[in-house]
Amino acid sequence: MKRRSAFVLSALAFGYAFLYVPLASVIFYSFNDSRLATVWGGFSTRWYGELWGNDQVLDAAFLSLRIAVTSATLATVLGTLAGLALVRVTRFRGRTLFSAMITSPLVMPEVITGLSLLLLFVSLQQLVGWPAQRGFSTITIAHTTFSMAYVAVVVRSRLAAMDQSLEEAAMDLGGRPLRVLVDITLPLIYPAMLAGWLLAFTLSLDDLVIASFVSGPGSNTLPMYIFSKVKLGVTPDINALASLVILFVSAGVLLAWLVTRRGPGQPGRT
After folding, report:
1. Is the pLDDT at 269 greater than 60, yes or no?
2. CATH code for the domain of 176
3. Which residues face 43 on adjacent strands?
4. Is the separation of the CB atoms in 194 and 155 below 8 Å?
5. Does residue 104 fall inside a structural domain?
6. pLDDT tens for residues 197-243?
7. Distances, alpha carbon 148 to alpha carbons 19, 199, 269, 270, in Å
8. Do 243 and 226 form a contact (C-beta atoms < 8 A)?
9. Is 57 part of a structural domain of the chain?
10. What is this structure's pTM?
């Protein structure tokens, strides 16, 4: 038993080290004073100061954040509606096709998705003159399209496991379907909605392939900027930028955990 416990602990430690040691090394070398990313030249915060004065980085980061927030919000609304339709409306014409269309972006290669959306936007531009140029709107639509499927799967799983007795009791007491949805259903599934929003936000912030297809001149997202810089070699300013992204994502995950731990049915909820 002791040998088994030691093996499990060793495997667990190796797994965590494999995941987090590279991230820790990126943060460590972001404070490197040397211009060579892997050669330590002393402690310095100069690269964070250079990032703050780099307009290209700030523009790319601001564009990525706007796209991620907008697409995650739209994906959460549409994905929640799709999950409700699949679980609560058990019979309607085309349900099987609708379910397949919702889940297909999960298994579709990003290259195919990006190429198909590019052809769609080019065809629309030729037919109706929109979009005049590819940028914020086209990337947001593309990210909403594929991230909506992830939100729908998360919300659908939560709805399928949820006890419907509270909803039925509210309807028996005279509650209208919309009122029951707002007062009963949404408060019960909001942790899943929040998880779906965070997942959609992260997928949008991380996307490179699809954004490369549907973006135009002057609309580089943060992953596109980092990829263009890495092709010329990793520099300490990229480490500093990656460290800020890690800090931002970690803060978001911590905030989501603090919110969801006091959700319905959790200890401490009054």
Report:
1. no
2. 1.10.3720.10
3. 32
4. no
5. yes
6. 988 998 998 899 999 999 988 888 989 988 888 777 777 788 888 88
7. 27, 10, 30, 33
8. no
9. yes
10. 0.83
Q: How far apart are CA 212 and CA 221, in angstroms?
A: 9
The answer for residues whose C-beta is within 8 angstroms of residue 4's C-beta and 6 or more apart is none
- Give the span between the Cα atoms of 5 and 43, in whole angstroms: 40
If you count them, how many residues does the chain have? 270
**What six digits make up the tokens of 162?**
């949820």
Structure tokens at 245: 């992204």
Total of domains in the chain: 1
Q: Name the residue among 205, 66, 64, 79 with its Cα closest to residue 145.
A: 79
Q: Are 207 and 223 in contact (CB under 8 A)?
A: yes
pLDDT band at 76 (very low <50, low <70, confident <90, very high): very high
Does residue 55 sit within a domain?
yes
Range of the domain at 145: 42-260
Residue 244 belongs to some domain of the structure: yes
